[in-house]
Amino acid sequence: MGETGRWRAWLPAAWSWVLALVVLGPVAGASVGRGFVLSYDMVWVDDLALTPTALGLGSGLPRAVPSDAVVAVLDEVVPGGLLQVLVLLLPLALGGVGAARLLPRSSGALARLVAVTLWVWNPLVVERLLIGHWPLLVGYAVLPWVAAATWAARPGDRPARRLWVLVPLGCLSASAGLMTTVVLLVAGRATSWRRRAALVVVGNLPWVAAGLLHAGAATSDPAAAEVFALRGEGFLPAPIAALGLGGIWNVEVVPASRTGALGVAATVVLLLLVAAGAAAARRPGRDLGRLLRPALLAWVVGYAGALLTWLAPGAIGWLGAEVPGVGVLRDGARSLVLCVPLVVVLAATGAGAVHAAARRLAERGGMGPAPGVVVGLVLLAWPVALMPEAALGVGGRLSPSTYPASWAAARGTVAGLPGDVLVLPFSSYRQPGWNDDRKVLDPLPRYLRREAVFSDDLLVSQTAVDGEDPRARAAAAVLASPDADERASGLADLGVGVVVEDGPDGLRVSRVPGPARQDVPRVDVVVMGLAWAAWTAAVAAGVLAGPAAVWTARRRRRVES
After folding, report:
1. Rounded to 5, what percent of the chain is helix, strand, coil?
2. Is residue 287 over pLDDT 70?
3. Is there a contact between 25 and 393 (Cβ–Cβ < 8 Å)?
4. How far apart are CA 354 and CA 123, in angstroms?
5. How buried is 457 (Cβ within 10 angstroms: 0-12 exposed, 13-18 middle, 19+ buried)?
6. Between the chain's N and C termini, which has fewer beta carbons within 10 Å?
7. Nearest-CA neighbor of 387 among 31, 62, 123, 173?
8. DSSP letters of 308-343?
9. Between the CA of residue 85 and those of 17, 37, 64, 92, 393, what are the distances in Å?
10. pLDDT above 50: residue 553
């Protein structure tokens, strides 16, 4: 490869890092002791404990399995603040690099750069960053790499060894695991279905095993389907917003530009480029054939899944209440992750075609290269120009906060007391002043490094959504008693030995005498132990396969020489 070839190969990677740093620059403050970014479901602490809940052995649904366990292990090696920066920044940058690799080698440099821009700078990324769905964004980053290794494979090809690392990373939550599974399943016959099935099973094993153990509590409140359904954004009705990779249920995390003329313009430009790319892909010489079929299948699954929550929330709600596990599908816009590969590949191809046409017209008119350069810059920068608030931590909304000093003192006190911890107020989200009044899932259960009992009920747009955790429901019933002795006795029966209440004057720690021992069934321990062993072994094998392959290749070359 010549100097020009190397430059073109590294340019998309450099551009992806630039965009990721522009989006998440302020988050880097968390790596130098300035606290943690706490936003909605994104809760981060300095030292997460490997509790039964983190391992899938708690009383509630395994919503943070295996993500919490992975973080609990990694933050023993990497400081918590730095780890959060890496978890947010690396997926964004490396996902953009993977998006460029989805395009065939015949694609020009501009098309690859446009693919990077569209992958990193879109409503789905911004909205999921704000709402704190970092495991989904890790899966989103893994997606183009898994797709590149399977969708364009030729018959008889063996799955790349790196998939044994990529697929488990793409399954750090149930929703992310489902998206990664679809990407593998639509790969067609080129890759052995047995090997793909093995990857799917092992990659999803921790949360699937934990979910099966909690099947009795895995049904959800029917009201949740209406609350979490696909939504319109400003002038854009839900189906059109979804075509532009928007439509999240939480209006508080929708970028302001998406609700006005800029959102309409961005969607129109994107769809025009996709149409141009679809037309260009049909011309002779375009090496997109093996990629487009699985990409189209993934798009259909993702768009249909999102649209169904808008068309039939009642049916989704009924299924969620009757069929364990269906509730994971209720967040309709989440499945749009599957739409991104096709949209990016076609839009980038369309941008390349438009740029080539502009250059030809300029040459015919004797205008020189300037018009082509201008058109190229416009095609590269329009996503940024039409959604500018994504920059600088989404307009400063993703910035580090520091936990109050009273929290560390409370954690020290709790550490020496028996029993589990009950967290009060008994509500799932907080809006603390020390977090600049930004909403966040209550950080106390993770911060205290103890198994905790806390509310998983939700209140969204004045609609109450009941939680699924039976232990939390039992605690709520105990707390409703007007008699203090009855409350203490009831909490002790639930295994609660400590109550930590967050009030105006800081945290208050109270003891509950005689907490009952809460033993995890031995069968559950064995099942989850086997699941974790298989998952860890797959990741370890994938990590070691790279150096082993390099060593084998070098040894073969020495023998041959």
Report:
1. 65, 5, 30
2. no
3. yes
4. 24
5. middle
6. C
7. 123
8. HHHH-HHHHHHHHHHSTTGGGG--GGGGGGGGHHHH
9. 13, 9, 19, 11, 12
10. no
Decide if 207 contacts 56 (C-beta within 8 A): yes
- Tell me what the mean pLDDT of segment 482-510 comes to: 95
DSSP for 346-408, please give it: HHHHHHHHHHHHHHHHHHHTT--SHHHHHHHHHHHHHHHHHSGGGHHHHHHTS--B---HHHH
Structure tokens at 184: 């593998």
Residue 123 CB partners (closer than 8 Å, separation 6+): 233, 244, 245, 246, 248, 254, 255, 258, 387
So what's the pLDDT on residue 193?
A: 82
pLDDT for res 30: 62
pLDDT tens for 238-274 read: 999 999 999 999 999 999 999 999 999 999 999 999 9
- What pTM was estimated for this model as a whole? 0.94
- Low-confidence winner among 106-115, 158-167, 290-299 (lowest mean pLDDT): 158-167
442-448-126 Cα angle (round to 5): 40
| Sign of torsion over alpha carbons 166, 170, 172, 178 | negative
